[in-house]
């Protein structure tokens, strides 16, 4: 994809690339700390990298046609890997991201109406209310240094709480954040036996994950009970995502979610809805602090806009391009790993039963054959008439299992970035590079301090 730029774009810092001849055990040792750091230069240049994963072959796919086959044409042949299931099931249960087969089909059909553009538009007032409060708090600290990563986490958690339950997260937010931090720092990292053993054989860490899951599901059940106690007026339209999910019925069978299923769906939406969006907004603010000229373009676009409806959000073309470019450079889900159920041929690539397929948005979005200036921050590439191949850009996945909440996340991200940059000039206080780490999502290795100044 060719792009033209009047000025030289910034190239944000990344981890050093691994030696291409790094041993298998060496890669396993690095995976727990930063999966991104296990990939060498070949992974950014070649269409397909073949290796071995214990008794099976492994493939890193950077060819859009092969990716299309795995994620769309024959997606039912590919399931999550044992390690992937182990990492996600304790926090997401059997929710939409984990489910397979008929269970997934039922959940997807049932949830889809809750995430249409129209349904998202009805939730925008919840978003704007939280943004008003966040901007007021930041306004009181104009000229001071702030931790914008923590601010984004608190803000998106509050938005998740209000859009899900119509109540704030002042009381429950710290507990929820403690669950997220506890899991991410210890239990959400793969250990050697997590990758080696089949899911039916518990690994040592699975016992700790099971204890975590019991406490976590009890917490989510408490949130649901509190929301149900608040009630709903008879005949009133749904006021939040919980109403939509609680009333949702499979259009073919008329069946709704059981209480146990609802717990897993709520957990999935709260976690996916706040953690990934907070991370994307942090990286966008970091990039704009590194690139003041682009920051001023965002501020100029938002000037004079009310930004309180979907129509207002849709007009923010450049801000949307900044979010899209941010998710290209820092995809929230840096790796999609699948195991083949049966033999297959993916656009000429022979795949055996049990082989591991890795589609890494981190690699794909920076691949030298697919992108012009792949490591540079160039938002205007997403305003070009020459769109990237659909299967070369996967911030929300692709195919039938594309993220159901993508419209919601995109609207929230564009609205939040436009409002924040429209209100404040953002600068980095120090010059120490912030390095992305791929663990559960693409996280920064530290939280830098920013100085914010009212425009």
From TrEMBL:
Coiled coil: none
Chain positions recorded as heme binding sites: 403
Pfam families: p450
Known cofactor(s): heme
Record keywords: Heme, Iron, Metal-binding, Monooxygenase, Oxidoreductase
InterPro entries in UniProt: Cyt_P450, Cyt_P450_CS, Cyt_P450_E_grp-I, Cyt_P450_sf, Cytochrome_P450_monoxygenase
Molecular function terms from GO: heme binding; iron ion binding; monooxygenase activity; oxidoreductase activity, acting on paired donors, with incorporation or reduction of molecular oxygen
UniProt similarity note: Belongs to the cytochrome P450 family.
Name of the protein this chain belongs to: Bll0557 protein
Species the sequence originates in: Bradyrhizobium diazoefficiens (strain JCM 10833 / BCRC 13528 / IAM 13628 / NBRC 14792 / USDA 110)
């Amino acid at each position: 994809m060719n792009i033209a730029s009047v000025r030289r774009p910034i190239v944000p810092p990344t981890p050093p690339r691994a030696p291409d001849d790094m041993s298998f055990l060496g890669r396993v040792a690095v995976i727990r700390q930063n999966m991104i750091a296990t990939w060498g230069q070949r992974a950014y240049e070649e269409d397909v990298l073949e290796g071995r994963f214990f008794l099976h072959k492994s493939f890193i796919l950077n060819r859009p046609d092969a990716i299309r086959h795995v994620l769309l044409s024959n997606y039912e042949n590919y399931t999550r890997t044992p390690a992937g299931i182990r990492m996600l099931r304790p926090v997401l249960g059997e929710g939409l991201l984990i489910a397979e087969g008929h269970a997934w089909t039922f959940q997807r059909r049932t949830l889809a109406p809750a995430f249409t553009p129209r349904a998202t538009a009805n939730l925008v007032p919840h978003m704007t209310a939280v943004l008003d409060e966040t901007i007021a708090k930041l306004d009181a600290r104009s000229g001071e240094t702030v931790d914008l990563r923590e601010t984004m986490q608190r803000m998106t958690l509050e938005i998740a709480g209000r859009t899900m339950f119509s109540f704030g997260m002042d009381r429950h937010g710290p507990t929820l954040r403690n669950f997220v931090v506890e899991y991410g720092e210890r239990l959400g990292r793969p250990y050697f036996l997590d990758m080696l053993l089949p899911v039916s054989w518990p690994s040592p860490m699975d016992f700790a994950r099971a204890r975590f899951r019991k406490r976590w599901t009890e917490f989510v059940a408490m949130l649901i009970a509190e929301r149900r106690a608040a009630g709903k007026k008879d005949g009133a339209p749904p006021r939040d995502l919980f109403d939509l999910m609680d009333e949702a019925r499979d259009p073919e069978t008329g069946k709704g979610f059981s209480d146990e299923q609802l717990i897993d769906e709520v957990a999935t939406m709260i976690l996916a809805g706040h953690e990934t969006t907070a991370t994307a907004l942090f990286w966008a603010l970091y990039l704009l602090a590194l690139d003041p000229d682009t920051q001023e373009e965002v501020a100029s676009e938002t000037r004079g806009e009310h930004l309180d409806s979907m129509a207002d959000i849709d007009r923010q073309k450049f801000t949307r391009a900044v979010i899209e470019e941010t998710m290209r450079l820092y995809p929230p889900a840096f790796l999609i790993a699948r195991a083949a159920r049966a033999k297959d041929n993916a656009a000429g690539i022979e795949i055996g039963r049990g082989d591991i397929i890795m589609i890494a948005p981190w690699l794909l979005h920076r691949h030298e054959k697919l992108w012009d200036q792949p490591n540079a921050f160039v938002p205007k590439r997403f305003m070009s008439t020459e769109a990237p191949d659909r299967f070369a850009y996967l911030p929300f996945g692709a195919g039938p299992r594309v993220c159901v909440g993508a419209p919601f996340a995109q609207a929230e991200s564009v609205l939040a970035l436009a409002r924040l940059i429209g209100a404040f000039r953002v600068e980095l206080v120090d010059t120490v590079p912030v390095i992305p780490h791929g663990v559960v999502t693409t996280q920064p290795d530290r939280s830098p301090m920013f100085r914010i100044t009212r425009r």
